[in-house]
TrEMBL record:
Pfam family membership, one: TusA
Keywords, comma-separated and alphabetical: Transferase
Identification of the protein by name: Sulfurtransferase TusA family protein
Segments forming domain UPF0033: 7-31
Family membership: Belongs to the sulfur carrier protein TusA family.
Highest taxon of the lineage: Bacteria
Organism expressing this protein natively: Corallococcus interemptor
Keyword Methyltransferase: no
KW Transferase (keyword) present: yes
Entry-linked CDD domains: SirA_YedF_YeeD (cd00291)
Length: 76
């Protein structure tokens, strides 16, 4: 899946991954796809909850070894 922006928060724990994707989203155009990479297993629950709260679309989540990867499309 080809994302317009990649946010890598590997090694950081909650709430850093969500804070970083929120910061990235603020400067993007609606419809932009963002790939968020994290080693924090909490992302599996946190990212869908954040998308529900913000109206952004969670396109996909997957686990790649020790990494959790989520793709989010900016609402608008």
């Amino acid at each position: 899946m080809e994302a317009g922006v990649r946010v890598d928060t590997s090694g950081a724990l909650c709430p850093v991954p969500i804070l970083e994707i929120a910061k990235a989203m603020r400067r993007l155009e609606p419809g932009t796809l963002v790939e968020l990479v994290s080693t924090d297993r909490g992302l599996e629950a946190d990212l869908p909850a954040w998308c529900d709260a913000t109206g952004n679309e969670l396109v996909r989540m997957e686990r790649r070894g020790a990494h959790y990867v989520g793709w989010v499309r900016k609402a608008g």
